[in-house]
Design a protein that fits this description.
10 helices; alpha/beta; five-stranded parallel β-sheet
């Protein structure tokens, strides 16, 4: 049995909230939400020193959702953590005048920076981590990137800088679901081997099944103990994870499920959660 079964169950529950959000807002990047949500749950409910009580504390851990288009998963996790009401997010998501817009909005509590212009998250986090070193702070900095995002040159400028400055307080996560808006990543812009690429930039590299909660928590613990290098976790995930309706299908990068699809997706999510017992 999974050591972190309760976190896996929470991830499946939050996938259902994501579906409700996407249906309510009539749009959303549901495929990437489903692949990345285990990573976000592990970070916010196990690894990071961050909560509504300390979100202004200079010693808090920092997180940037670089793949900001997967904001629905991010909102669901932040709401579950208590930063804002879940039902309010679902009701108001992507509606006119709502603060719950289609990319992270730092006017909302708990969100460090506006993101979604791909390639920006890692360079900004390099600055945050470098500031932590200069100020002799113990906080850690985390960012999640999509694998399609890695075609952005600014990612690799950030990677080079982090390696150069030996930012062992920095942990990047790649949501390696191998699909992006225009198809398979290897057909659009070849990336293998991710492990070799990051290692060449001076990073400690950990590659794990990215929808396996135990593996993720273990990887984050290993990252904390690595000294003298930043760490990247290659989270090998499944796009649309949780339902055969969506899994490994590029067309679910951005899509609103029909009522029939919603019914099947919810049923699949319940069955996957029950299978954890």
């Amino acid at each position: 049995m999974s050591e972190y079964k309760e976190l896996s169950c929470l991830a499946y529950d939050l996938r259902k909230k994501v579906v409700e959000m996407v249906v309510s807002g009539k749009g959303g990047h549901i495929g990437g939400d489903m692949s990345v949500i285990d990573v976000l749950v592990a970070l916010y409910f196990k690894e990071m020193n961050i909560s509504p009580k300390n979100m202004d504390d200079p010693d808090r851990d920092r997180f940037v959702m670089s793949k900001g288009h997967s904001v629905e998963a991010y909102y669901a996790v932040l709401a579950a953590k208590g930063f804002f009401p879940m039902e309010e997010v679902i009701e108001k998501f992507s509606k006119f005048g709502s603060p719950y817009i289609g990319h992270p909005n730092n006017k909302l509590p708990g969100i460090e920076m506006n993101s979604g212009s791909l390639g920006h998250g890692l360079p900004v986090c390099v600055g945050m981590a470098l500031a932590g070193k200069m100020d002799k702070k113990d906080y850690r900095v985390y960012t999640v990137m999509g694998d399609g995002e890695l075609a952005e040159g600014s990612v690799w400028e950030g990677a080079m800088s982090a390696g150069n400055y030996k930012l062992d307080n920095l942990c990047a996560i790649v949501d390696r679901n191998r699909l992006q808006i225009s198809g398979n990543t290897e057909d659009v812009m070849k990336q293998d081997s991710q492990e070799e690429r990051w290692a060449a930039f001076g990073w400690n590299v950990i590659s794990v099944p990215g929808n396996d909660m135990d593996a993720l928590v273990h990887a984050f613990e290993l990252a904390k103990h690595c000294k003298g290098k930043p760490t990247v976790i290659i989270a090998n995930t499944t796009k649309g994870c949780g339902s055969s309706v969506m899994e490994n299908k590029a067309e679910w990068h951005h899509k609103v499920p029909t009522p029939e699809e919603v019914e099947q997706i919810m049923k699949d999510l319940d069955e996957r959660k029950e299978a954890l017992s």
